[in-house]
Amino acid sequence: MAKGASISGFPEWLPEQRMVEQKIIDTVKRVFELHGFIGIETCAVETGASLLKKGETSKEIYLLSRLQEVRHESDIPISERLGLHFDLTVPLSRYVVEHSGQLTFPFKRWQIQKVWRGERPQGGRFREFYQADIDVVGNNNLPEHYEVELPLVMCEALDELHRFGLSKATVHVNNRKLSEGFYRAIGLTDIEGVLREVDKLDKIGPDEVKKLLTEDHGANEKQTEACLRLADIVTTDPNNLRSRFDALCDSYGVDHTSEGYTLAQQGLNTICTIIQQSAHIRPGAVIADCKIARGLDYYTGSVYETFIDGAPELGSICSGGRYDNLVSKGNRKYPGVGLSIGLSRLLSYLLGTVGAKASRQSPASVLVAVWNESTRDTSNRIASRLRSRGICADVAPQANKIGKQIKYASKLGIPYVWFPADSDNETGSDVAVDSVKNIVTGEQSPADSVSWLPDTVYAQQTIVINKE
Amino acid sequence: MAKGASISGFPEWLPEQRMVEQKIIDTVKRVFELHGFIGIETCAVETGASLLKKGETSKEIYLLSRLQEVRHESDIPISERLGLHFDLTVPLSRYVVEHSGQLTFPFKRWQIQKVWRGERPQGGRFREFYQADIDVVGNNNLPEHYEVELPLVMCEALDELHRFGLSKATVHVNNRKLSEGFYRAIGLTDIEGVLREVDKLDKIGPDEVKKLLTEDHGANEKQTEACLRLADIVTTDPNNLRSRFDALCDSYGVDHTSEGYTLAQQGLNTICTIIQQSAHIRPGAVIADCKIARGLDYYTGSVYETFIDGAPELGSICSGGRYDNLVSKGNRKYPGVGLSIGLSRLLSYLLGTVGAKASRQSPASVLVAVWNESTRDTSNRIASRLRSRGICADVAPQANKIGKQIKYASKLGIPYVWFPADSDNETGSDVAVDSVKNIVTGEQSPADSVSWLPDTVYAQQTIVINKE
Q1: Cβ–Cβ of B394/A61 closer than 8 Å?
Q2: Could you say which of A306, A328, A357 is where a domain stops?
Q3: What is the pLDDT, as a whole number, of residue B3?
Q4: B449 vs A33, A44, B378, B386, CA distance in Å?
Q5: pLDDT (0 to 100) of residue B426
Q6: N or C: which end of chain B has fewer CB within 10 A?
Q7: What ipTM does this complex have?
């Protein structure tokens, strides 16, 4: 993070860091569009009523008040106040319902925007950050193949970030029906509660989870053990998954005709389809992992988390799932499946741990020198000609000594300095034609602003990995 | 605006409208970078103390409170609360001061972000909108040539929007020193007050302004008339400007040795430099207009407003000026000059009055058809090959009848439908090789996914002007 950022939890980047963020956004957006996802942007606010659907007042939300409302703001019911969105799924739901008549379904949309969490200020937690989401929302039905394809699009997007120093991403998939079905089959009833605790496995470890399941969710020791054994199943092989699940069921005496078992089998079938077809399309990208639970209660089918090789500290940087009941309008349902990349956290990792940064601070490839203020016009014209051919060009801020102008270029990382022909012989030297100097290599040669091109390697700002 | 947008003042666009916004952003950003401006992004919030500098509690600001703070939020002093930024200049000031050690000066930055105004909800006023800003900030000094160049960069950016249907932009320039010097020279003292009223000329007309000047700012009839006569001067000719100004001064008996006259002359010199040099670099782009006042009190030199030919209802869509005292740290000052495009208002005009929209809703050029779900894999592979060559490709959502698949493409504006070779002869027809159909022209021909390219005209989403 840019040092000295004064507002805790609101990250702000230096120019050479912001460039990495911009390139990441451009890169994932490009992958989304290659797959036919349509970009939308929703406003930053939602009503308190939408943000707090289902009465989740524990949510970390920022509410707004107009300056003129101060002192009376608490009089307005929270449901009628505006608040900043905390994710891009709630806004998507509203957008789809509002514009359903003007959208084509299934609606494949990408959305990359900042979201806000009104958390207590604490070290390392972002209160403002970017999310990059893709979702497909159907009109009353949504084919299962999107549950196979969406995580693969995300893998492709993350793989494109290899050149910014990101290691391989693997999507871990589970299915709510499998978990819920199994929990019911072994006699548990507080399904949401159990899922919430299992979701903490990586953070607090099995012993703590056991304790919570027993103390807060009425699980006996056998049930607790069963939950943890289910969570232990990780495999890329559908047959292995089926046989281990059935073995687990048998060892706990699960009745194969029970509703729970039937539900679990539906989930199991979907997971098997996903890992089987993924292996086909993008080998090694997706793995079944029965401990994936996801805290959010609106998921009804597949749930995904994504981990980066060699970066366990990063946690899941791309999560999501299928939600059949989140969006509805009258009798009509809009089932969806989507995943969201936590871009700011990913950026923070790439800038910090990986050491990614822009190859230079300025987009300019060339700084046109100015012999003296009366010939600034000549320098401006040269810059104009270069720009008209797509070459980013800056002009020296002042007609200082040439050494000082070169230093300005060097500080900004601008690789070339352009010397206009000095027809007035201002410099005492005999400079009859323009010339350009690569201040990295020291090479200098005559140049014409209507035809000169920078060497490819110096033409654009790029990302470099600068591990210290 | 997308119909039915539920939150008043927070515009939201349909996909084919959002695309226009995205293209506008990309276009102006490109121009900024060609000129060597460096992109930054600041967080959405500032402290109440920064937002309300100089105690302007009349500002239309949104303050934030965490959900947990509701009922106690008004106990926190406003200066310590967080609020959403209402422009990009206040955040820039803070950014420059915080990171001055890591920036290269003069610091040329572009910034395109949303800003928020906590206005009373009322028809047509945006409470959330995009601004596109460029500023150059110097370290203790800032050469005058930036006051010539920045409005020209904005003209270039706006001219690039011609292809989205925008007419020619003209920057109107004035100088605070000219106005202030003249007002002082004729004996007025409430300079900020007078500027604020003169700024309303276009909105409320000369009679109302006269009334306000007389009633609220202690101007007599002669002074009021002088203010309006100064505001009448509009010219592209420096000599004309000088002679009209001097004639005006003479007719009001202004003493040429007075401090006011001297200050006015400084301003006049700057305006003359600007219109003279602009005429050279970009003829017809900049005009001197002595009624330009700008409401904001931090401007100290040049002030700019920009109008679009044939769109007076739009008002100024790109404004700014020079500010010498806005940013400081200890004894060090950071004088700046900058302009800001009101992007959302411009977009709203282009979508509404001009009728700009995306040529199609989907970024995809091709929809790959699916004969039946068991061969979806084949269709996916074709799409993959197209994407690997940069062609945006979608795959039919369901293996419906081909007519229904074509209809899906057509609704999304996808111009090509790809028919995989039907080796299983599913269709009863003998389709031995892939073929692709342009559903706009009806043309169909055999195609190979490793080499086929869409016709240029159908390759990308573009902007079309669709005046109804």
Answers
A1: no
A2: A357
A3: 43
A4: 18, 41, 12, 6
A5: 56
A6: C
A7: 0.95
Per-residue model confidence as pLDDT tens digits over B193-235: 999 999 899 889 999 999 999 999 989 999 999 999 999 999 9
> Tokens representing B427?
């269709």
**Does one domain contain both A451 and A353?**
no
Contact A420, A394 (CB under 8 A): no
Q: What is the pLDDT of residues A69-118, one digit of tens each?
A: 888 888 889 999 999 999 999 999 999 999 999 999 999 999 999 999 98
CATH at residue B435: 3.40.50.800
| Residue burial A187-219, b: 16+ Cβ < 10 Å; e: rest | ebeebebbbbbbbebeeeebeebbebbeeebeb
- Judgement on whether residues A144 and A285 belong to the same structural domain of the protein: yes
CA distance A207 to chain B (A): 31
pLDDT over 90 at A467, yes or no: no
Contacts of A66 in chain B (CB under 8 A): 60-63, 118-120
Identify whether residues A217 and A302 lie together within a single domain. Answer: yes
Does residue A280 belong to any structural domain of this protein? yes
Please report whether residue A186 resides in a domain: yes
Instruction: Report the residue from B36, B63, B394 with minimal CB separation from A362.
Output: B36
Which residues 327-386 in chain A show a CB within 8 A of chain B?
Answer: 361-364, 367, 373, 376-377, 380, 383-384
List the single best residue of A23, A38, A280 to mutate versus B (max B Cβ within 10 A): A38
Provide the 10 A C-beta neighbour count for residue A442: 7
Q: A310 and A176 share a domain?
A: yes
Is the Cβ of A418 closer than 8 Å to some Cβ of chain B? no
Whether residues A312 and A457 fall in one domain: no
The answer to whether the CB atoms of A61 and B66 lie below 8 A apart is yes
Contacts of B280 in chain A (CB under 8 A): 377
Do residues B415 and B440 make contact, with C-beta atoms less than 8 angstroms apart? yes
Q: Which two tokens stand for residue B319?
A: 């404004």
Co-location of A113 and A252 in the same domain: yes
Query: Beta A45-47 vs A128-137: how paired, if at all?
Result: unpaired
Which residues are B303's β-sheet partners? B174, B321
- Domain end, chosen from A308, A338, A357, is at A357
The residue type at A459: A
Nearest CA in chain A to B48: A67
Which pLDDT score is estimated for A203? 87
Assess whether A295 and A394 both reside in one domain.
no
Indicate which of B65, B125, B374, B378 best probes the interface with A, i.e. most A CBs within 10 Å of its own CB.
B65
* Residue A113 near residue A96, CB atoms below 8 Å: no
Do A284 and A345 sit in the same domain of this protein?
Answer: yes
A303 within domain boundaries: yes
- The CA-atom distances, in angstroms, between A135 and each of A65, A110, A111, A286, B405 are 31, 7, 9, 18, 20
Q: Is residue A111 part of a domain?
A: yes
- Whether B34 and A74 lie within 8 Å, measured CB to CB: no
Query: Cβ of B56 under 8 Å from any chain A Cβ?
Result: no
- Which residue of chain B has the CA closest to A398? B143
Count of structural domains within chain A:
2
Between positions 118 and 137 of A, the ones with CB within 8 A of B are 118-120, 128
**Local mean pLDDT, 10-residue blocks, chain B (468 residues):** 66 96 98 98 95 70 90 87 95 95 97 93 83 97 96 97 95 96 95 91 92 92 95 96 96 94 97 95 95 84 96 93 90 95 95 94 97 94 97 97 97 97 63 92 96 95 83
Contact A46 B13 (CB under 8 A): no
Residue B361, pLDDT score: 95
Looking at every residue in chain B, the average pLDDT score rounds to 92
User: Looking at beta carbons, which residues of chain A come within 8 Å of B373?
Assistant: 145
Residue B356 sits at φ, ψ, to 5 deg, of -80, 140
Instruction: Write the CATH number for A157.
Output: 3.30.930.10
> Which residue of chain B comes nearest to A29, CA vs CA?
B363
Residue B441 domain boundaries: 366-465
